[in-house]
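Friendly challenge for the regulars: who can give me the structure tokens for this chain first? No prize, just bragging rights.
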Amino acid sequence: MSLPPELEKVIELTRTHNRWRRFECINLIASENVMSPLAEAAYLTDMMHRYAEGKPRRRYYQGNVYTDEVELLVMDLMGKLLKVMYVEPRPVSGTVANAVVFRVLANPGDRALIAPVQAGAHVSHTKFGTLGALGIEHLELPFDLDSWNVDVDRAVRMIEELKPKFVTLGASVYLFPHPTKEIAAAAHSVGAKVVHDVAHVLGLIAGNRWPNPIHEGADVATSSTHKTFPGPQGGVVFTDDEEMYKQVSRYVFPWFVSNHHLHRLPAMAVTAIEMTHFGEQYADQIVRNSRAFAEALAEEGFKVLAEHLGYTMSHTIVVDVRPHGGGAKVAKILEDANIIVNKNLLPWDPPEAVRDPSGIRLGTQEMTRFGMKEDDFRYLARLIREVAIDGRDPGEVRKKVVEFRKNFLEVKYGFDVPKHLEESPIKIPMLL
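First reply, four minutes later:
Bragging rights claimed.
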């Protein structure tokens, strides 16, 4: 029996996407990554069809004998990897993790202090996103462009004056660690809590290349699990505060999550084990690649921000592309060349510039996982110059990108599917 034409179209679109993004593009989106072959195999299991409301061994559904054990294993593995006491893996995204914690810490009408959106705060931290949906008042911390960071002295005075319920640190443009110790001391002096969103740098924390905010005074940390931490899409909350953990767990279900997408859990466990074995090597290479890439982009004629600070300490690089037509134009012509970046607000942009901001954001974590090293990123900087500065036809540069990408098709810093499992039902049948 032949397939319906609509089904053929779905399959062909999916296959085309897989070929394009996985084998023909250079992906520099700072919020994305790829799982290892084994984690992908563990993701595509019968667990994706099942429900497990509640906590392990205290479910409201039967049939969770094995999913309970996997979830408990994830909590143990992530706790050891991050060196924390309590891990809540049930939020289905970093935004949901933020929503849970924000609601634990504040009621509608209460105040929260956040980093400015233009300086990298995630939309979920703001009145435009989750914070606003919860009815919590959004007040912005002062930002110091010279240090590309929260202005500590002014922030401390704001905290002491405004006495918010909580302060949120962390960002989606996160070049340098935020001053957790100083902010936590000020917040705690007025009875406020500190939430640190480490979605972008969780893998760097796991790889001991970035400070763990829990160890620096933050009360609770939130994260997604698919950026520098190369796991399945999902969320996590972690803390050393037992009462905080209990409250978060009570609010995850039933307030914000019913079923928590169980097939994430074995893939997350595989990734946690991989990061235990390869995390330091991977995180170190990410940071080295970022610095080499930033330096190379500057040498090619781009205005890479935070030069006086060494450009970046993370996976992220930010470039002011106003001289080359602005963020929207540059992101589009690079996509035409199969180089995938995103346009991004810079600190001097007004919020309404979100559709055509001054900058682009680039991340090194995914291509590092495919094996790119410093010299490879230097070559990539030349290709970006050809498109964005020299005005070369993106279609011509695309040919170079496709050929270059052939050198980076296998995932590194992870495990392959063992031979004895290759014919098992858990093997992932990707539509290639």
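The chain has a mean pLDDT of 94. The chain is about 40% helix and 15% strand. Your move, everyone else.
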